[in-house]
Structure formats: C-alpha cells, structure tokens
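To the wet lab folks,

You asked to see what we're planning to order before we commit. Fair enough. Below is the target structure as tokens, and below that is the sequence we designed to fit it. If anything looks off to you, flag it before the synthesis order goes out.
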C-alpha cells in the first residue's frame, strides 16, 4: 500500500514501532463485548506490539482530533491466516478499532479499503475475517464492502452472560 493512502477523513499508513503507546491506549479505550472475546485489559498493560503482533501487521488511520492535531484514530490488523503455502493467497483481518472521537467519519471504511488494497498489492486474491454475530454495525460495514457470510459457528463464545455466534466472512480481491 502506498505510504500516503488518502481518504477524505484520514490518512492510512503502515504502523510504526512509535505507534505502540497510542495503539495500546486506543485498544483499551475501544474494548467492548461487542467485538472482544478476551477479558477487559487490566494494568499493568503489556506493550501493544509483541513477538506475535508486530507493526508490519497493522495499518493505522490518522485523523485530526478536537484540537485539529493529527493522531491515530484507528487500526486494522492484516495477516496471513496460517503459515501454510497452500493458503498464502489469503489475508485475514484480525482486529479493527476506531477511537470514539473519530467514529462516524469513515475511518473504519478507509481502514477496510486500505487493508483490501494492501492484501491485493501483497499478491492475495482473497480476504477473510471473523466477527461476533451480535456486532451488527461491523457486519453491516463488511457487507457494504462486499464481504459475505461464509459460515457461522453457533454459540461459539459465552460473553456477558449469553452465547454469541462467531460469523466467518470473506470476499474476493479480484478486480
């Protein structure tokens, strides 16, 4: 993906190690049982980047905040789903978050489109993701960007006192 991928509301770029603190804060601020299957993060907070989640796996959206300063407004994680050569043509979205102050400005859509472009530029011809069944806003966004439901794991997670489906979605990256 070009470094200066532009969208009217934001600039999407590859993540850098220097984004660690801001993305960690964003990740904790956006935690919700609407999309998270892990427990709420508790202090002391580990670094955002670690040996399994490096900056190379993330795209960051920068947008202007209330003080008109550019800052990280969201991120998306895009990785090969497995290390197997037989599915190296697939990329998987494994996380998408948008700061509360930046919602409603097209940030998630810009990140999703940038992820598709990056995957395509990387040689992938297919992109997949998993979304919790009750996450209606995310599912609507993904469907509006061409993703379709390819499978459902009923009651896969028990969150906030109820069973929640794990919905598998995907789409082709062919032009």
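Sequence we intend to order:
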């Amino acid at each position: 993906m070009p470094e200066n991928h532009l969208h009217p509301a934001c600039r999407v770029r590859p993540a850098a190690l220097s984004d660690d603190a801001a993305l960690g804060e964003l990740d904790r601020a956006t935690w919700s049982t609407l999309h998270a299957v892990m427990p709420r993060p508790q202090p002391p907070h580990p670094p955002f980047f670690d040996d399994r989640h490096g900056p190379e796996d993330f795209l960051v959206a920068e947008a202007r905040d209330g003080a008109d300063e550019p800052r990280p407004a969201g991120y998306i994680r895009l990785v090969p789903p497995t290390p197997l050569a037989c599915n190296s043509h697939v990329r998987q979205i494994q996380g998408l978050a948008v700061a509360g102050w930046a919602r409603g400005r097209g940030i998630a859509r810009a990140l999703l489109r940038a992820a598709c472009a990056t995957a395509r530029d990387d040689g992938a011809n297919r992109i997949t993701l998993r979304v919790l069944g009750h996450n209606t806003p995310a599912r609507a966004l993904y469907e509006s960007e061409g993703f379709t439901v390819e499978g459902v794991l009923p009651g896969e997670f028990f969150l906030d006192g109820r069973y929640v489906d794990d919905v598998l979605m995907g789409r082709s990256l062919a032009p």
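Structural context that might help your review: The longest helix spans residues 107-121. Helices lie at 20-29, 107-121, 136-144.

Thanks,
Computational group
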